[in-house]
Amino acid sequence: MTLVVATVSGHKGGTGKTVVASLLSYHLSTRIGEKVLVIDLGEAGSSTTLLLEEDPGPPYISDFFLGRATWSDVIVVSNLSDNLMIVPCSGEVGPVDPTSLEYLIDRTSKHFEYIILDLPAYPGSLYDPVVGLAEVIITVFNPDFLSFQAVSTWLKRRDFFRRKLILPLLNKYFLFMGDWKDLARDEFGTVFTMPFDAALQFSFARNIGEAYKNASNRVKKDLEVLTYRLQKPLLKVTG
């Protein structure tokens, strides 16, 4: 059974949700051996850059939405792993058609264990129908009140999330930031963490494979914890 996962951050950008989505997809495909499809819906095509050595050229996800390419035309195998594939973005997604995206997910689901939707930060309800296609929603926020409030408000204003598995993830976290972890637990009931790792920010890694190799053991351990939770999506109590 395919598990569809969306990474979101409410209206706050810069939380690192694309790095989280790319790390998670790399970990699942190379360390666990699962077949993973990443659909890059970001405004800058950052997942495409991290998961592929170079821009594959058209067709992109925008071409699929505009009817210029079929669903099979837009799937590219990553050079990082035969188990990792991506629907690339040129940085100009254009209008996102949830019905077309649902069709793409339906047609590809039998080939993948995980489909990961990497969404941009968005105001209002623009991408809500897209998020609604996922069974699991990873809400990524940082230890600052703006991004924390963005996720908290995003969740409170949406009823559909009650039918989903929500995994709040405190990104760029240090161990001495225990107050932030406690605050997140009080607000969301549970929280996963991912440390701020200099190797992922400043190493000039060409792709997420190099970044993963240079990442600390703490990053890899936190990915293992998050992966373990994803492998048990029917559990009602997170943690």
List its salient traits.
239 residues; alpha/beta; globular
What name does the CATH topology carry? Rossmann fold
Oligomer: single chain
Individual helix count: 10
Tell me what portion of residues adopts beta-strand conformation: 15-25%
Structural overview:
This protein is an alpha/beta fold. The chain has a single domain, classed as Rossmann fold, CATH 3.40.50. About 40% of the residues lie in helices and about 15% in strands. Strand 7 (about 165-175), helix 7 and strand 8 form a beta-alpha-beta unit. The longest helix has 16 residues, at about 15-30. It is globular, with a radius of gyration of 17 Å. The model has no long low-confidence stretch (mean pLDDT about 90). It comes from Infirmifilum uzonense. This is AAA domain-containing protein. It holds the Pfam family AAA_31.
Fold topology:
Layout: E1 3-8, H1 17-32, E2 36-40, H2 46-51, H3 61-65, E3 76-77, E4 84-87, H4 98-108, E5 114-118, H5 128-131, E6 136-141, H6 145-156, E7 165-173, H7 178-188, E8 192-195, H8 198-202, H9 208-214, H10 217-230
Parallel strand pairs: 1-5, 1-6, 2-4, 2-5, 6-7, 7-8
Antiparallel strand pairs: 3-4
